[in-house]
Design brief:
The protein has about 450 residues and is an alpha/beta fold. Helix content is about 50%, strand content about 15%. It contains 17 helices and ten strands. A hairpin with a 4-residue loop joins strand 2 and strand 3.
Amino acid sequence: MLVENKLHKTLTELANATGTSDATAIRLANTSGYSGYQELKIALARESASPDRSIHDDIEPDHTLLVAVKDALVDAKQRGTSQDSGEQVDEQTAAERTVVGWMAGTAGRLGDNRMDLVVGVDGGGTKTACLVADMGGSLLGLGFVGPSNYLRLAGGAREAAQAVRHGVEAAMRDAGLDISAPGCRIRVAQLALGGVGTDGVNVAMTEAARAVLDAECVCVENDAAAGLAAAVGELYGVVIVAGTGSIAMAVDREGRRARSGGWGYRVGDEGSGQDIGRLGLAAATRAHDGRGPATSLVGRALARYGIDTLDGLRGVPYREPVNNRDIVDFCLDVVAAAHEGDSVALGITEYAGRELAVTAYAAARVLGMDAGEFPAALCGSVFKAGNVILGPFRGELAKLAPGARVVQAPYPPVVGAVILALLRASVECDGTIRCRLAESWKEVERRHE
């Protein structure tokens, strides 16, 4: 097997290929002087980018890598058993030094003096997630920053672009990479941002991002595109995004697009976290005044905002500067109350689920997709609420579009942004790539738990 394939293997893939366990592979990386398997892979990738740094030249270049890895892992497994019994081992085994040296040395002789990367960004009204990945679909580093929806920021596109830049820098640091290093380059930076039209065209945001990102190609998309790519693996179907805001986007086989919703929290975004939070607070005030039924949302509002009486609530949504989380965070309380059987909260979540289904259906209908079969991808934190949202959503969508097949992505939209970046870099995102994305996401996410 090719050396390049080994560099792209996830922890689980390596362990499975060598008949050992994840724990044994981690022990190999640790005893080789690295903090974990991810750091070992990054070190090997750096060797690939700098052939003049080749080490362990005494290792035979025709030595089979898989055999060397297996020998080292088996030896590490035996040493781990000895350590468990109290025997201390302070030095690497010869097998471990051999496999690490052979992999790094051979990678250094591959003759490719570049380390090509892609960046995926998923940004909204409250937070922005950034991922850096190699061209084989291995996710290397993850970074989080604040909002990057330029419509919600006082500094507009420039402020949003700076937020993205900080997020990319955080992801690079998390991966242990330096973009200024010789041979290291970002081929494509794919930004999937709230506030960008579903046609994916936004000149101001694109220019602002290109001015601050060191990438050969900077592309801007609506955040719904990343959600669709994450769930389906391509830009086809309908995606309904329900996070801080809400929007649905449909894409047919000809690449035509249609949008429904996404009008912002002041005039729309039905079924979003902001909408659910606002309706929950409105229900609490109605109960307080005697204009509506009693609900546990009153007590939850007092606890959420640290106020003694609901009269103090007036200072929350209208204070300056505006904090997007002030209202959207109350969505969590509405969902919790719904799960506990509060009838008022259940009414809100049922309404939200139905509205999201109608929004998805409306986008599909514009392109004539509603009469046939199509994937309907769910994206965003609202759907994490479980059956109090999913139940009414599925029920309503089944009535409106019986051919809709509801799918949920195995990873978040930021991984979908990486998929879009890889596709733009002419990398075919087949089953192998998607499996690698899923496995490496687990590794990256584990570091941020």
